[in-house]
Structure formats: structure tokens, C-alpha cells
Amino acid sequence: MGMAARMPMNMSRPRMSTDVLTLTQWLSPSFPVGAFAYSHGLETAIQSGAITTADDLQTWLADVLENGSGRNDCILLQMAHASTAPEELKQINDTAMAFAASKERLRETQLQGAAFCQTVTAVWDQQTDDLTYPVAIGAAAARMGFDVTLTAQMYLHAFASNLISAAVRAVPLGQTEGQAVLSALTPLCKKIALNTKDATLDDLHSTAFLTDIAAMRHETLQLRIFRT
Q1: Quick one: CATH architecture of 40-220?
Q2: Which of 99, 100, 109, 215 supports an S-S bond with 41, CB 3.0-4.6 Å?
């Protein structure tokens, strides 16, 4: 009787485990979107001296996540996941491009999105046009039947992880310090995903002005190692 009572809970576990593993694959540093080549303007902040410690990095990334492109990407991803028509998805993607704060930010989201779409089409047989990165992930996750909140949380976590990896190389910081920053930001990733689950395109905004300015200044930065 006890085992029978537990079976409904266990029946969903294999599917959820597969979803998590596939999302982990999509958002892994080894997935061929070239994420390692982008610093999202972080390189400018490091060269200017705005980020010299792990605490500086955590404060900067928390602002990006909660008040800047992280939050906006999360909304765009969830809107793409919920879209039901090609015209609606196009509007979301056009809005994502319009909200890119600089030429490099636009290139970053377009190139990563195109690479993601190409790989997902080849491996999972998903026919899709090139989309910006968060829109592409949201649309692909919907086609695979992945939970939108789980997808959004993992996207933000991977976004933060990639920027921390860039800072570990460029500041430089120790690997342990980088992992401590990521651990500290993990609850924030969950909070943002939950707080934006009912958001619409009208809720897009950014008050992380320094991060946007850093991305703009990166376009003329000399001796740079990252593409953005």
C-alpha cells in the first residue's frame, strides 16, 4: 500500500530527470554557442578597475541579473515559451533585438542564438529560424515540453556562470572564489525566474546603466580578449 501510494510521485521523475539533463546539455559551456568568447561588457569593467575582487563581481552580476539584461532575457525566454504563433514569436524576437543596449550586445545574442538553433535543429530535429539567444531557448524548451520556470532558472544560472568564468580569467580570481560567487547568486536566479513568470513585453526595462555603458565602451576597447 505504501509503495502504491508513492508511485504517482515517482512516475514523473524519469521525465523530469531527462529534461534537466537536456537543459544542462543545452546550457553547458561545451554546447557550441561560443559563450566563452563573450563577457557582456564585463571586460570593460575589469579593465577600468570597477571590478577587482569577488565581492565587486558579485555586486555587478547581481545588478545585471536583477535590474538589467538577465531579467529581460528571463522575460523574453518565458514569453517565447508561451508563444503560440509564428507572428507572436517574431514580435518577441524583434523586441529582444530592440532591447539590446549596444551593437555588441545585439551581435552577442544573435550569434549565440543562431548557433543554438543550428545545433538544436541538427541534434533534436527542431526546425526553426535563427532567433536571439533567450528567445531561441524558450521556443525550443516549449517544443520539448520543458517546464518554463526550470528553464528560466537554469538559463540565468548558466548566464551568471559564464560571466564568472570570464572574470576568473580576466581579474583574475581563484576558481574557489568564482564558485562562491555563483553559489551566492543561485537563489537570485530562482527569485527572478519566479517573479517574472507572469511578466509581459510591457514589463521589460533596465536600470543597470553602468553595465550597458560598459558594453558600449567595449566596442572601442583596446587589447581585449572577449568579443563583447
Answers
A1: Orthogonal Bundle (1.10)
A2: 215
